[in-house]
Design a protein that fits this description.
Distance between the termini: 56 Å
Number of domains: 1
CATH architecture: Up-down Bundle
Low-confidence stretches: 1-15
Strand content: under 5%
CATH topology: Methane Monooxygenase Hydroxylase, Chain G, domain 1
Mean pLDDT: 85
CATH class: Mainly Alpha
Number of helices: 10
Largest sheet: none
Length: 253
């Protein structure tokens, strides 16, 4: 009998990525990739001064410094961690947990062998090592931590009997450290899960500000440059890949 972790552990990282992506996209006002938005914003911020008079003549809320305002909004976004960095950090936290769980799993299987050898006719002692409780901890990191801490204590209590049957003393002595490593990894992962929501929300708000500044340029350009395809193309906001703004589109740019 062994600590059988969910066979889909490897997919949990991908699920975390998907959740993070959904979190980061749900509050965004735009439907294009953020890299595309930022690239577009950088370009129109540079183009704007040459056409500022035309935009201001049409809509007096535009100013000569509008391009600089766009640049400042882009700079604010770049002070934040990108989605990819956050996902990489989440993957690192998750992998630490999986590695610690695997280490505990291997140690538990090893100790279990010697427990059965030393107490083959004593089910009561075997159950002290958690043989009867495995199903309760298999799908819970928190319960598994507590289980490993108790397992380390009971193993230390029966250390002499296990050593007599050939168990490695270093393995027995390492159990507390393995349990602590799992606890630390789990805390780091849970802490990051809570923090990432704030990180994602802050970045989304800053990206929305960028979008809020460049979208009016694109809208107005459709009017003032309606007869100038070259100029219109410069200011046209990129569309989502699958969108042609037809009646069959599910999304619109």
């Amino acid at each position: 009998m062994l600590i059988s972790f969910d066979e889909n552990d490897a997919s949990k990282i991908r699920i975390n990525f998907l959740i993070l992506k959904l979190m980061s996209n749900n509050d965004r006002l735009f439907k294009i990739p953020e890299a595309v938005l930022l690239e577009y914003a950088e370009v129109v911020a540079e183009l704007y001064p040459a056409n500022a008079e035309e935009f201001i003549a049409f809509d007096s809320t535009f100013t000569a410094e509008y391009g600089n305002a766009i640049k400042e909004s882009i700079a604010a976004v770049k002070t934040q961690k990108s989605d990819q960095i956050v996902m990489n950090e989440m993957a690192e936290c998750t992998q630490k947990v999986l590695d610690a769980m695997s280490d505990c799993n291997h140690a538990y299987k090893s100790i279990s062998y010697f427990v059965r050898k030393a107490f083959k006719d004593n089910e009561a002692v075997q159950n002290q090592f958690g043989f009867r409780d495995l199903h309760k901890v298999r799908n819970s990191q928190a319960k598994l931590i507590y289980f490993m801490e108790e397992h380390a204590e009971i193993t230390a209590e029966y250390k002499n009997e296990l050593l007599a049957e050939g168990c490695n003393a270093m393995l027995i002595d390492s159990l507390f450290q393995k349990a602590e490593r799992l606890k630390t990894a789990n805390i780091e992962q849970e802490k990051f899960k809570k923090e990432r929501g704030v990180l994602t929300q802050d970045r989304s708000q800053l990206l929305n500000k960028v979008y809020g500044l460049v979208k009016p340029l694109s809208d107005v350009a459709r009017i003032i440059f309606s007869d100038d395809e070259a100029q219109l193309a410069k200011y046209s906001l990129p569309k989502p890949k699958s969108s042609q703004n037809s009646s069959d589109d599910l999304i619109e740019s």
